[in-house]
Amino acid sequence: MTVDTGGYTNRRAVVMNGSVKQEGPGGLWDSIRKAAFIMGSGILLLAAFGNSLTWHLQRFWGASGDFWQDLWTKLYLLFEGHDAAMFYLGTMLAPLLAFWFTNGLLLLVDITGRPSFITRYRIQVDKNSPVDQGKLRHAIKQVVFNQVFLSGPMVIGIYYLMTLRGDPCGPQLPTFHRGLMELAFCSIVEEVMFYYSHRLFHHPALYKHIHKQHHEWTAPIGVVSIYAHPLEHVFSNMLPAVSGPVILGSHLATTSLWYCLALVSTTISHCGYHLPFLPSPEFHDFHHLKFNQCFGVLGVLDRLHGTDGKFRQTKQYERHFLFTNFTPLSESIPDQPKKLQ
Questions:
Q1: Are residues 251 and 72 in contact, defined by beta-carbon separation less than 8 angstroms?
Q2: Buried b / exposed e along 187-222 (16+ C-beta atoms within 10 A)
Q3: What 3-state DSSP class applies to 16?
Q4: Residue 262 banded pLDDT, cuts 50, 70, 90
Q5: What pLDDT, in 10s, does the model give residues 141-166?
Q6: Longest Cα–Cα distance in the chain
Q7: Under 8 Å between Cβ of 252 and 168
Q8: How far apart are CA 184 and CA 192, in angstroms?
Q9: Closest CA to 320 of 298, 305, 336, 292
Q10: Three-state SS annotation for 29-97
């Protein structure tokens, strides 16, 4: 329960099991600031990386003018008159390569249990060591089905929908800053749509028949990020990701980059390893462990609706940050020792 601690401080005391735990002020505002920091840092890093990569490529190849625009112009001329094919390759082939390259590396670790310098970062230390291969084969079949028979046709429909807004494969690339703004907008759209669709699939009437399939993995691995019932894949995986570019009428280059980032991001969230220098997967890993907490992506709506309360009282929450050393957080922030009965 919650008790008032007086009018001279902007804090609350949460009474749990006879002890009083102080909860800091501005919980929702704190989540918004953290989300803004994550998004802002990502955009700044992307901008710095993009500018640096452009400079090095221009120097290496002796390119003149705008390297990326020149590269796009060559691709545009190669596919001239075949915009639909170019759009499909950009929004299916590129994201699929990003997804399977990332998950191919993770699957090597999941299946073999090696190398140990990766497995030592496992979040749920007693799970998937190594992964159940029969269960994994079943999951991969569903993932491939979702990608080929659901994502593929949806991307075709998205192309014709986006042509109503303009030319998604136009000869002129958006400015770098415009692209970054669109990525930030897509992140917000995804957070809102994924949070509410995800909570909807946790309704008892839908969970048993649809979403329970995804939660067969209480300790997730990267490839099961899109292991889901077909209805869930369409309405909770695909729609939140594709809606941002459709709303904005984004260029193919931005759309393709966003799809790749979204797939790599959800892979990291499900991978089961809290690796140094990568975003923390503790938030969504806890969702798979407990089911009724941490429904969103950025965590803002979870704080708003109070669906992260139990998470914020755990060691997983204390470990929920990007760390920059090589000591596993399970060692630097260990679990409380179990009480002897």
A1: no
A2: bebbbbbbbebbbbbbeeeebeebbebbbebebbbb
A3: strand
A4: very high
A5: 999 999 999 999 999 999 999 999 89
A6: 73
A7: yes
A8: 13
A9: 298
A10: HHHHHHHHHHHHHHHHHHHHHHHHHHHHHHHHHCCCCCHHHHHHHHHHHHCCCCHHHHHHHHHHHHHHH
**CA–CA distance from 250 to each of 174, 178, 257 (Å)?**
9, 10, 11
Cα–Cα dist 139/154, whole Å:
21
Yes or no: say if 284 and 217 are a contact pair by the CB < 8 Å rule.
no
pTM of the predicted structure, to 2 decimals: 0.83
Which 8-state DSSP code applies to residue 308? T
Q: Peptide bond before 279: cis, by omega within 30 degrees of 0?
A: no
CB atoms within 10 A of CB 75: 16
| H helices present in the chain, as ranges | 27-61, 67-78, 83-88, 94-112, 116-119, 133-145, 152-163, 176-201, 204-207, 230-232, 239-248, 252-270, 282-290, 300-305, 315-318, 329-332
| Residue (of 288, 330, 301, 331) closest to 35 by Cα position | 301
State the Cα–Cα distance between residues 158 and 249, nearest whole angstrom.
10
Instruction: Return d(Cα 182, Cα 235) in angstroms, integer.
Output: 22
Task: Write out pLDDT tens, residues 214-232.
Answer: 999 999 999 999 999 999 9
CA–CA distance, 232 with 248 (Å, rounded to integer): 24
The two tokens of residue 90 are 């950009």
